[in-house]
């Protein structure tokens, strides 16, 4: 595998075209679009596959996992309504691309990945090559990360069978959870707004296809 961290006019142009595609597909949040236009997605691709980096597709990153489709990243991020300084728990670090987008919006990110090889790779690339310094953890994120709770926002980037109660407990009042829920084939994007200590407003949105969330409160 050969990675090169060069970002020149060719990649910048490709990112601009990707942003235009996302606008056509209905992404409206200007800050989210700015972040997509800024983060060099090709840094997560082997040199051989650079020409795939700015297509609106998910792509294998090893260990049977994928870097999410840019549209999916933009869609989930838009639903989180990130404000500068938000404390965000991300479950499923993967490549770290979504992490960078959240940090570009000013969030402080606590991110968990269960695959050790991905965790090690991303823990190196984000701070060393891109200047993003989230809090990295390796382990089962389906139980959240209680020792740093509560969070303003929680995002799950793998498909869950149900909304884990434990994640709702780790949200602040007024906080938002975004999680794909369904079977192993397809999932509906679900947002849950915590309106009181034990009160939640749940909205079920569009259909997606994620790799499974594997763990104690998952598959
Ligand atoms: N947003 C990421 C990206 O763009 O690279 C998405 C990565 S992928 C779609 C989902 C990730 O969730 C995979 O890397 C997978 O290993 C991880 N995952 C699955 N179950 C998990 C769990 N219980 N805890 C932490 N990570 C988990």
Describe the structure.
- With 219 residues, this protein is of the alpha/beta class.
- The protein has one domain: Rossmann fold (3-Layer(aba) Sandwich).
- The chain is 29% helix and 27% strand.
- A seven-stranded mixed beta sheet has the order 5-4-3-6-7-8-9.
- Strand 6, helix 6 and strand 7 form a beta-alpha-beta unit.
- The chain is globular and about 50 Å long.
- The chain starts with 8 loop residues before the first helix and ends in an 11-residue tail after the last strand.
- The mean pLDDT is 96.
- Bound molecules: S-adenosylmethionine (SAM).
- It catalyses: [protein]-L-isoaspartate + S-adenosyl-L-methionine = [protein]-L-isoaspartate alpha-methyl ester + S-adenosyl-L-homocysteine.
Architecture, CATH level 2? Answer: 3-Layer(aba) Sandwich
Residue ranges: pLDDT <50 for 5 or more in a row?
none
CATH topology heading: Rossmann fold
Count of DSSP H/I helices: 6
Portion of residues in beta strands equals: 25-35%
Sheet having the most strands: 7 strands, mixed
- CATH H level, superfamily name: Vaccinia Virus protein VP39
Write down the domain tally.
Answer: 1
Strand order of the largest sheet: 5-4-3-6-7-8-9
Computed over alpha carbons, the radius of gyration is 16 Å
Helix content: 25-40%
* H and E string: HHEEHEHEHEEHEEE
Mean pLDDT: 96
CATH class: Alpha Beta
Unique bound compounds:
S-adenosylmethionine
Structure class: alpha/beta
Cα end-to-end separation: 31 Å
Shape: globular
């Amino acid at each position: 595998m050969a990675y090169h961290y060069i970002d020149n006019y060719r990649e910048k142009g490709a990112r601009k075209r990707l942003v235009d595609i996302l606008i056509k597909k209905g992404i409206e949040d200007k800050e989210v679009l700015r972040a997509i236009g800024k983060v060099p997605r090709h840094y997560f691709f082997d040199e051989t596959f650079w020409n795939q980096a700015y297509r609106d597709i998910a792509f294998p990153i090893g260990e049977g996992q994928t870097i999410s489709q840019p549209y999916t990243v933009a869609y989930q991020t838009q639903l989180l309504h990130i404000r500068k300084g938000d404390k965000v728990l991300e479950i499923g670090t993967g490549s770290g691309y979504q992490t960078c987008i959240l940090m570009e919006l000013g969030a402080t990110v606590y991110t968990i990945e269960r695959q050790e090889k991905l965790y090690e790779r991303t823990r190196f690339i984000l701070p060393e090559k891109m200047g993003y310094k989230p809090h990295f953890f390796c382990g089962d994120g389906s139980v959240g990360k209680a020792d740093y709770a509560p969070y303003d926002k929680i995002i799950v980037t793998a498909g869950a069978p149900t909304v884990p109660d434990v994640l709702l407990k780790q949200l602040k009042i007024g906080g938002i959870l975004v999680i794909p829920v369904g079977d192993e084939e397809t999932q509906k994007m679900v947002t849950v707004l915590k309106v009181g200590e034990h009160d939640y407003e749940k909205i079920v949105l569009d259909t997606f296809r994620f790799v499974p969330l594997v763990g104690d409160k998952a598959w």
